[in-house]
Amino acid sequence: MKYKSVFDIIGPVMIGPSSSHTAGAARIGRVARNLFGREPKWAEISFYGSFAKTYKGHGTDVAIVGGLLDFDTYDERIKESLTLAKGNGMKVKFHEEDAVMDHPNTAKIVMGDDAGELELVGISIGGGKIEIIELNGFQLNLSGHHPAILVVHNDRFGAIANVSNILAKHQINIGKMDVSRKEKGKMALMTIEVDHNIENHILQEIAEVPDITQVARVSD
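Above: the chain's sequence. Below: its structure in token form.
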């Protein structure tokens, strides 16, 4: 078996007993927080498969809420995340689901506040590595280990080219791009992983492109 990096072999620096159940869960929560753009006021977290069976013993609940609080995997505050979230006024509920998913370590987060909501499904694939496989009903494949932007747009010709041209103008290299749509000619989602974090003024420029309705960023 070949590994892409030392990280693939030894896993991340983390708080907790299991890279899959703790570090991976924290990263899923932090990507959700990153995409939402702020700390949510409430969160409904559903665990499936192995997550559902062992989340209390392995600290998966503590880790994923730590991610929602924007704590990294090595942050000591993760241990107190449930108490800290409650102190911040965040209402959190956990659900153990019986449904069989494609991956045993699957979590769904539905969270929001008075201004909006976000629904995300993520899987922990081992060694602290994750994939975000669904966002607000769109299918995607986001690793969370590289800077990325997610662009919601009308499914019309030229939208993808316009965003790519802006990134090229600012000398930002695209490492990976996926496009998902629920229905032809309706809304679509671009998931673009890049080599460097994207600055706010570039995000604003993308947001002003015709047919673009929303832009979110995942930083490394």
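Confidence is low (pLDDT under 50) at residues 1-17.
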